[in-house]
From TrEMBL:
This is Esterase/lipase. SUPFAM superfamilies: alpha/beta-Hydrolases (SSF53474). It comes from Lactobacillus hominis DSM 23910 = CRBIP 24.179. InterPro entries: AB_hydrolase_fold, Mbeg1-like.
Amino acid sequence: MPKLLDYIRWRGDLSFESQPFNSVDAALFAHLIYLPYDSSVGGHKIGEASKRLLFKRTKPYQLNKMDTTEIELLPLSDRYRKMEILDWTDYMQKKPAVQFTAATIRLNKDTIIVTFRGTDGTMIGLNEDVDMSYRPEIVGQTIAADYLKAMAEKYPHDRIYTIGHSKGGNFAAYAVSALPIEAQDRVIKAFSFDGPGFMRSTYSSPSFQRILPKLITYVPEGSIFGMMLDHPERTLVVRSNAHMLKQHDPRRWRVARNGFVLAPGLSNASRVIRNSFISWNTKIPREKRESFWLALFSALEDEKITEFNQLTANKLRGAIQFSHAYLSLDPEIRLVANEIISDIAATARQHINIPFVNKAKILEPLGNDSSKGPIVNDSYDGS
């Protein structure tokens, strides 16, 4: 089934003048920001930067097969290779957790693309994701807003696309909402790919409501992270035949010509996970959740765990390290963790078919385009 890298092969010889910028192009730039370029690419073309990156395969430039293929295709693509990277910015800090990367790329003589990276493999990035589950606003959003404002001021005559995947999709929308009105009017569209959404207190603000028509979110049918919060903007559900966890990568979504193939709606498992997110929010007070996550990340730091793959590369060793961190938590904090785990299990039992244990409640897909009908029938705040 055709996917994003196939699209680069199919459409790579077509200019943006003959085939205008579309959602699949946006998904490419939502992922390009994850590639290990650095600030030195500013002022260089995508093709040049990609060729140079191919020669940096020693750490920290280890590339998986899909990344390598993507980087090999970009210099061969007339559609992308001559696009200039105007800026590349990285920033990271421990407390409060901020893992931030953004880039500005010239699309044509009067349009720029500002793309924001989502979560990388660091525990700081994961910590920042968790912060989103109980804080209406996080520091990274403010940094994203400042970055977009700076680029809008630096290129005052350009129209703007903002783009992001995962946490970056949240940043792409939030940053637009924080712009002055005259700069907001220059934004064509803000694309989010499986971004987590927002809390009601954020999206109900006048500035956010003003930009809603400019926002669009794509989520895979097995979305996990994209179901964490609410999506007041138009949201489309995309077909993917990848394993549920791997569906978070938009390069694994189905494409047809110059757009994504829509699914009937969210899968049963995706809606169960969303129900669990909402249940945590309504049953476990914010203060308890915050205390648990702060304690857990502090314990992981004590175990010298700075990258998520330290827990997954060697599963036995990762399990031992995580167990040490977990057992070091205060007993009251562990009770909160047990409460969360019990709630997940109770929700799953209601909807997932476990032979000889229960009869699953089947959730029929509600729809695939929120402009035509709901894709979910619940809200993060329980209303």
